Amino acid sequence: MIEEQDKIKLDPKPGFVIKTKILESKETSQISTKAFINVCHDPQVPRPSDEFEPEVVFPLIIENQWEIPIVLSSVKESKDKKGFPSLVYDCCINDACFRWCQISKDLRLILIEWCIESIELINSVTLERDYSVPKMLSKGELTRTELTKEELSDLGFKKLHDLQQDETLGLVEELKLGSDEEQEEENLPSLFNIGGESAAKKPMIEEL
Fold first, then answer.
1. Which residue, 21, 23, 70, 125, is most buried by CB atoms nearer than 10 A?
2. Contact call for residues 106 and 175 (beta carbons, < 8 A)
3. Locate the PIH1 N-terminal domain: which residues (predicted)?
4. Which pTM does this prediction carry?
5. pLDDT tens digits for 79-108?
């Protein structure tokens, strides 16, 4: 029996929404269904052991040595604004990681790809990569999850990247960080002092 003190209850805060659709699924009724991904955040979700410094982190991502831990909710049924059925997934990350993605548009793009990949792997679906980001903080109510410390330290995200890293690596290689504007972005993390709490040593994805 799991002791009560070993359980951690997340209370995610809304961030932004990714709107896409399901292209392939074992459940044929899901094909062509709209899918919404709530990217949300909670300080209790683990974070990478290394701080986000673009000149250091992006090469590590290419080498599959740095990633943002994601807690993935179970799929939820909903409706779009026209009343048609849709599916909703919550991808919860650490607060500091969310701030990093607000500062760096390149890291935000990579995070979106990681969220899509995690949903595809765990739910055995293929999502449309031609997504949009509607002007909304969340689609419906965010899932409040309860999990153990062991579940939070699971290494599922490493498994994800072992299986599906090609698209992420291709995305990283396409990103150009040489412009003056992007160079300014690289300096922002230290100015904002977004180091935050101590990091978990290993990243993960946990389905709840």
1. 70
2. yes
3. 10-149
4. 0.76
5. 988 999 999 999 999 999 999 999 999 999
Comparing 121 with 191, the larger pLDDT belongs to 121
Angle at 119 between CA 72 and CA 186, to 5 degrees: 75
89-to-32, 64, 121, 169 alpha-carbon distances in Å: 16, 25, 13, 24
Residue 183, CA distances (Å) to 7, 11, 109, 167, 180 in order: 42, 34, 17, 24, 5
C-alpha separations of 90 from 71, 95, 104, 164, 187 in Å: 8, 15, 21, 20, 30
Question: Residue-wise over 55-73: b if at least 16 C-beta within 10 A, else e?
Answer: eebbeebeeeebbbbbbbb
Handedness of CA 108, 66, 175, 196 (dihedral sign): positive
Output the CA angle 119-38-31, nearest 5 degrees: 45
Q: Where are the alpha helices (DSSP H) in 38-193?
A: 54-62, 95-103, 105-123, 149-152, 156-163, 166-174, 180-192
Q: Tokens standing for 26?
A: 């074992």
The pLDDT tens digits for 19-53 are 999 999 999 999 999 999 999 999 999 999 889 99
